[in-house]
Amino acid sequence: MLHVPVLLEESLDFLITDLSGTYLDLTFGRGSHSQQLLNRISSQGRLHAVDRDLEAVSFGKENITDPRFSIYHSNYSEIDALFPKQKFDGILFDLGTCSTQLDDSYRGFSFQSDGPLDMRMDKSSGFSAAEWLNSAPENEISDILYHYGDERSSRKIARAIMEFRTKKPLQTTIELSKVIETVLKRTGKTHPATKSFQAIRIHVNQELHHLRMGLSKLHNILKVNGVVVIISFHSLEDRIVKNFFKPEIEQMPKDIPINTSVSETYRCIKKKIKPSTHEIKMNPRSRSAVMRVFEKL
Ligand SMILES: C[S@@+](CC[C@H](N)C(=O)[O-])C[C@H]1O[C@@H](n2cnc3c(N)ncnc32)[C@H](O)[C@@H]1O
Q1: Ligand 1 in contact with 120 (CB < 6 A)?
Q2: Is the CB of 29 inside a 6 Å radius of any atom of ligand 1?
Q3: pLDDT at 144 over 90
Q4: Nearest-5° angle of CA 209, CA 71, CA 80?
């Protein structure tokens, strides 16, 4: 399935403040936001894009040959190292995964098609879902399922995974999905493995850690009056975004360096923008999206 961009026009309406400006798309994916941004800016404008997924970067190199465009394989948590001197007029985060990642069984994100239990967006680093599930202690697995997936049966699922592990290591997405189905029966439309797969994906990719790091680097690479647009797809991400930019509360963990007070650095332009009923009807994946917009002071 093609990746259908979410809040495409609305995000660019806020992001583009200068048609000749320089922009940064931190989550290129399959490039719909990038392509549309290039359609809008002038011949003097520039767009740099980043993705931690090598397949996304290859797609960008092959499909967007516009001289105003460049793409890099990087994690947005290291964005200041990639652009030590450059300052941008606008920066876009469209968080989470692409439909193309979820639909490719070989990437191991989907409980519906069989594939290696991997789930890494960047296969060149980190640990796979199988490596983690086959070695983590039971309470760690249960905590991750509960905190990142809001999975109420986290303890029972973690127990079932441990029991499976005594016979053989978990290797495939369908094996994991079947283990979960021994604990949770199918009811309604939602597959019983949905929450656990989300939780494991967030953990394997350290998504929340990288988001916090990425946000903490923004002030180094945004121009004054530059805009940051962030589209989140679940409450864990949106809470981090909301709290990061909250004027009076500094809630970043101690290991994340922040040289400037966030409240002195940003102004909230738009608190919470949701997709229209029409967009949700055309693209049900967009229903959980929340967009927030901030300006650097
Ligand atoms: C929702 S998709 C973006 C879709 C894109 N806006 C489009 O129009 O096709 C999210 C993308 O962000 C990438 N991504 C997620 N976390 C990242 C990170 N920490 N650093 C860089 N890229 C990341 C994923 O690999 C994925 O391709």
Answers
A1: no
A2: yes
A3: yes
A4: 45
